[in-house]
Amino acid sequence: MLTVFYRSMKMIGPHTAFENYIFRALNITGRATRAEFWWVQGILLTLGTLAVGFDLYTIATADVPNFSIFAYMTPVLIIVTIVPTLTLTVRRLHDAGRSGMWYFVNSIPIVGPIWLFVLLCLPSESEENKWGQPPNGAGGPWAAPHARGFEGLSGKATETASASKPHDARQGYATLLKLHQEPSAEELEAQRAQISDYYRTRVLGQASS
Fold first, then answer.
1. Is the pTM of this model over 0.85?
2. Are 116 and 105 in contact (CB under 8 A)?
3. Going by C-beta distance under 8 Å and a sequence separation of 6 or more, which residues neighbour residue 80?
């Protein structure tokens, strides 16, 4: 179980996870993987620790106590992150096949937070559900090895061929030659379509066309 969880964390990095956290702050639709959710939680924990340390230093060195909440980092951090953290949690529940309403199980004393934690640790559903396609590639680390792939800019999974096909040095040489060539109108149009699809799937959280 721990091995599968660790492998899922490697599917998306902290930079991409926090980027989604910011740009999808008001988006309660779509899905978010365990990696995306827990990378953000780790970043917020680090920022919270730094904020508390800064506030303790400010209080200890102040001659006169300042009772304004905006004079300290911790309340400001909580205010800024409360909405995007809520929407991220809802998308994580969607990814596990649960309604966002399960978030309110957290209101049950003692049992609620533990229950919600378990739900947030559940693996992603490997197939499309009512909240969209699996993010960051179809299947995921819990799927069969032949079903896994890497997601390109267009959001479509492609099979890893490096293990099944020998490397052809001529293909690498042809790629280098293309770097010095002006892209054709068709290539420019394809790049625009990829960027548009990336924005729609990763920022807006819509299903890939």
1. no
2. yes
3. none
Query: Residues with Cβ < 8 Å from 193, sequence gap 6 or more?
Result: 154
Separation between Cα atoms, residue 106 and residue 104, nearest integer Å: 5
With the C-alpha atoms ordered 185, 186, 189, 190, is the resulting torsion angle positive or negative? negative
Token pair, residue 52, equals 């508390």
Residues 6+ apart with CB under 8 A from 151: 136, 137, 157, 158
Angle between helices 73-95 and 111-120 (to 10 degrees): 60
Q: Which long-range contacts (CB under 8 A, 24 or more apart) does 142-147 make?
A: 142/4, 142/8
Rg (CA), the chain: 22
DSSP string, 31-91: ---HHHHHHHHHHHHHHHHHHHHHHHHHHHH-SS----GGGSHHHHHHHHHHHHHHHHHHH
User: 101-147: per-residue pLDDT in tens?
Assistant: 999 999 999 999 999 999 999 999 988 899 988 876 544 443 333 33
